[in-house]
Design brief:
160 residues; mainly alpha; 0% strand
Length: 160
């Protein structure tokens, strides 16, 4: 299998490139375009790992979930610097504590759906700073859900 049945377009380089470039600001300069491209390219990569964790055979879930969590963490580490390079204050991450009661797989699918929605269509009524906050929140939720998916699949009796 070369693509996820949920989102086969994630694995089409032409479509991914169009989605990434669609987030460039018409008023922005070259530096703004680079920052935008970096952010949305990394979002695209994170979504690919999330889809892999959701769609791979059971023996591969652990590795895909680890990679998803690590990719989310790396992007969260970069976001404050990307914000600074774009002249934005880092808004931080909001979290929804109610979401933590859901199983990891459901949380991962929901967060990936939200982030894919932001990649595909920028809400017209959302400013750039709020958009970054939404992205950061979903990236954090994907990382947390991937860790939950790992924890749920761990045989804790073998650890003692």
């Amino acid at each position: 299998m070369t693509s996820s049945p949920r989102r086969p377009w994630l694995y089409d380089p032409a479509v991914g490139g169009v989605l990434v470039r669609a987030h460039r600001s018409p008023e922005g300069g070259p530096a703004d375009d680079v920052v935008s491209d970096v952010l949305w390219s990394e979002v695209l990569g994170l979504l690919r790992w999330a889809e892999a964790a959701l769609g791979c055979p059971p023996p591969l879930v652990e590795g895909a979930a680890w990679r998803t969590a690590a990719t989310a963490a790396a992007l969260l580490r970069r976001l404050p610097v990307l914000c600074a390079e774009a002249g934005l204050a880092w808004p931080g991450v909001r979290c929804d504590p109610d979401e933590a009661v859901l199983p990891g797989r459901e949380r991962l699918a929901a967060a990936a759906d939200r982030l894919a929605g932001l990649l595909c269509t920028r809400p017209a009524d959302v400013g750039l700073l709020e958009l970054v906050e939404l992205v950061a929140t979903d990236v954090d939720a994907i990382g947390a859900a991937a860790i939950a998916l790992l924890a749920e699949g761990t045989d804790w009796t073998a650890a003692s």
